[in-house]
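Notes from hallway chat w/ T.B., transcribed later so I don't forget. T.B. wanted the structure written out for a chain they're using in a teaching module, and asked if we could keep both sequence and structure tokens in one place. Agreed to drop them here.
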Amino acid sequence: MKRTKLYYGQVGGTLNAFIGGVHRKAIAIDEQAQLVAGCFSSSNPEANAECGRHYALEESRIYPDYKAMVEAEGVRTDKKLDFVVICTPNSTHFDIAKAFIEKGINVVCEKPLCFTSQQGEELCALAKKKGILFGVTYTYTGYNMVKQAKQIVKEGVIGDVVDVKAEYLQDWLSGQLDDSPEAGQQRLSVWRMNPKASGISNCVGDIGTHIEETVRYITDLRVKRLSAVLDKFGRELDLNANMLVEFENGAHGTFSCSQVAAGYYNGLKIRIFGTKGSLEWEQEHPDFLKLTLKGQPTQILTRAAHTNGHALAINRIPSGHPEGLTMAFANIYKAYTDALLDKLNGEPCDGEWALDFPKAEDGLRGVKFIEACVESSEKGSVWVNL
């Protein structure tokens, strides 16, 4: 019988966790997958149990840690897991993903993919060997108008890309610029600023990688080399970063990310300049795309009203009703679950927009981007090849 429904489990993401809840809500939008198992917190048994009960999971499928979950779910036959969602701190991604892959369970993982490029290479090779469908949730590639931008670039509307200016500015860690005791206390409580949990980078690892992947997704250009300056302001990890990048086609660009930019909340902005025109997209106004062609007035393209092709096909609600972060996640999951259903049903998944979600290889490139930024900065902003 043809499969029309998937079963999934989740590691991380209690009821009070921001990103874990976004994953669950996004998956629920298209009703193609049902949550049936999870370890939502290994450090807080009460929160773990509370989350499992909230989603009416069988008590036996609420696990104290991911290892117990892997062992039990790996041999299960009734409502067997088709995929697992990993939304835990960075330090745990590799071990959890590897364990589920080895049991033949497909994986969707938060970014960054893992701590090191060596770990990323291992995950990519293992996933390929086991025939695992591996997705990485680079959120902003799921936005409708980002897909419209990709289509515009692909069709050559703005010509060859000659320059990219991209920034991602936040201010939620501005307090870290203060040397007061309160700032120190906050520093201890934010896991992203702890190298043991976050890795070698905070700001670039958290939001700089979103710039790299969103630009790559729209333009299909990969960073060849870069020169970076990472600012720590006396902390263990970076809070601010500026990068000069060179793409594989020879074009250059600048990336800037900050978590100490006062007055900015989630200011991801992508500007792409081509030989015939330019594109501009802002995450805080995601339903609009600015298109300027040489010698013509600037056009403001609106989701649904001025989209075509794939972007129009995946449109969910009429223009004027804003689509947001959860819907972008849902678009990524729709592409992933469609592909997984095709795989399980033995059907081809080879259309023009098939597999339209970030993959393990994209996650690996993100880790290499982080490593190159840190290496460049530590060596006096020298050029570093990816």
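Follow-up for T.B.: The two ends are 46 Å apart (CA to CA). Might be a good example for the class.
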